[in-house]
Amino acid sequence: MILLKDGLIVPMAGRRAVKGSVLIDGNRIKEVGEVKEKVDAEIDCRHKIIMPGLIDTHIHLAQALLRGCADDIPLVRWLNERVWPLQSTYDPELGSLSAELCIAEMLLSGTTTFLESGLHTKYGIDGIARVVERSGMRGYISKMLMDSPYYANHRMYEGMVEDKDEAMKEALSLFERWNGKGGIRVALAARTHCTPELYREISEMAETLDTIATLHFCEIKEDVSFLRKEYGMSPVEFLEHCGLNNERVTLAHCVWLGDAEGLKANVAHCPASNFKLGSGIAPVKEMLDKGVNVTLGCDGAPCNNTYDLFRDMWLASIAQKARLLDPQVLDAHNALTMATINGAKALRIDSGSIAPGKLADVITIDLKPHLMPVRDPASTIVYSAKGSDVCDVIVDGKVIVENRELKTIDVSKLMDRVEEKGLLPDRLAHFL
Q1: What CATH number did the domain enclosing 388 receive?
Q2: I need a surface site. Which of 40, 154, 172, 221 has the fewest CB within 10 A?
Q3: pLDDT classification of 144: cutoffs 50, 70, 90
């Protein structure tokens, strides 16, 4: 048993913050508040916040090595001129290295669970899965599925096109090998602008396998124009037509979704990515008003350029205030809920709050001078804290980060490997 002792507990799920301790027994939270049991290990949480681990519902594990490679370019050019050509040069060694760099950053900044948005075969997906397993992190990995070499009317970079039938076979094989192994689950991921037939096949497969599906959706204006021209449907009508309008599906972005009436799928809001690519500001307030389960995602290093979900909580909140000229819109508590409870709901995981019986995915935040005094803990977390303020990270009852030290990844050796391989000098020279 592990005791997080004498901290400021932010439990979420409608409960007020309290001073006290959190007792972890195995991989579950056993007690919250005043704890008198003897334990195997204690973490002193005086001058610390104890809160649920953050849940990132839209990331690209294979893009961490591309940080700084595709700045200040709009989405379609960003994909075709930089990101896809560079990713097409990957091999399994680079795929695993990028995943390890991404996971180290997420864990050190308090993210305990992620949803990967789709991996190409050439990245070496088994190697990436082994990195996730060794790290102790909880996450969904997925094989990217497609049946068209186009994004809207733009032909994809040839090196990233895959055969639909082979990709589907690999997705099923990946599920059989890795789903439920350690903290790994396997999701289904669809490339933007597949045919309705493939989308229906993915939806049916997700239900049969009892897993989830994800896809990028309505990220830029052109996505909506394409749906209306090609199918004569609104975004929500198209989702319904394709069997994707259900709680197993997480839609990334939805900047140009329009009316969210009738939307049952989850939404992964990615403010930093959307702002930096000039895609726009998603109508989060309106989606929440319609009962949509809105979560948060960092997206990838070439478009964020971090995997620090604290920054995206802050951006999500302040962007809606500026967009609607209303400082009361999307307050700190709601932004924090998106990154915890809502994320857990979308990923069908029993975490996201601090309560007896919940999975022990817990982090602590060191109350440094820039976080003091604490009047409203949610305000402190969303408006003042950064990922670098995270001190301890527990995933599935195991201490993964202790006093800022990542125990499952040798960060020094990782940095050496990234310096050696991560700049991709021979690859960059061809494209820049």
Answers
A1: 2.30.40.10
A2: 40
A3: very high
